[in-house]
Design a protein that fits this description.
This protein has one domain: von Willebrand factor, type A domain (Rossmann fold), CATH 3.40.50. The protein has helices at 2-23, 48-60, 89-101, 112-124, 141-149, 176-191, and strands spanning 32-39, 69-75, 79-86, 131-138, 159-163, 168-172. The chain has a six-stranded mixed beta sheet, with helices on both faces. The protein is α/β, with parallel strands linked by helices. Helix content is 45%, strand content 21%.
Length: 193
């Protein structure tokens, strides 16, 4: 029981550090790799403009800075990367916004499982000297159901959800379990010295 509580404490501490560093007003010095999966199904169609306005103002304009990298998947009938670039000033941010304006939300289903597997692979390849931050934007929880009950359910083991009127965003941490174990092991070995 103590071991589980200790792991939860370490996980909570890591998440607080990550979130506070992303939302702090001071300039971040560590580059960020942003991974975004966005619903390409009809369930997001009516909320697309609200969703993109939120993402552009809260993430592109407030969080992303020059030197950060963003990779965007659309989860339609099949998942695919639609954008992957390193940000170079205002022009880079505008390129992201322009790409998102053309987002197709006409698919009959949303292949979140494939996108999450690909995202997990990319997150695990993120260099240690960069922050990894993953988001999943969905139009309805029903589109996510196959992922939660299928073979990709472990990829959504650690997430935080923010619900809006017609859509929601999940902050996903597919690689956090390994990082918590590493942090816990490093801490335990440091106190044994």
């Amino acid at each position: 029981m103590e071991n589980i509580n200790y792991k939860k404490f370490i996980l909570f501490s890591i998440l607080i550090i990550i979130f506070s560093s992303l939302y702090a007003e001071d300039k971040r010095t560590i580059p960020l790799d942003m991974y975004l999966i966005i619903d390409g199904s009809t369930s997001l169609q009516n909320a697309k403009n609200d969703t993109l306005a939120w993402f552009n103002s809260q993430v592109v304009d407030r969080i992303l800075t020059e030197g950060d990298k963003i990779t965007i998947w659309t989860a339609g009938d099949r998942a695919q990367i639609i954008y992957s670039e390193t940000i170079s000033g205002t022009a880079g941010k505008n390129a992201i916004k322009d790409k998102l304006k053309t987002l197709d939300t006409s698919a009959k289903s949303a292949d979140f499982s494939s996108a999450l597997r690909d995202l997990s692979s990319k997150v695990s390849e993120t260099p240690q000297n960069r922050l990894a931050y993953s988001m999943l934007i969905i139009g309805s929880a029903e589109e996510l159901e196959p992922t939660l009950t299928g073979n990709a359910q472990g990829l959504l083991r650690w997430f935080r959800s923010e619900k809006y009127e017609r859509w929601q965003v999940l902050i996903v941490a597919p690689d956090i379990g390994r990082r918590v174990q590493q942090a816990g092991a490093a801490y335990m070995s440091s106190i044994r010295r």
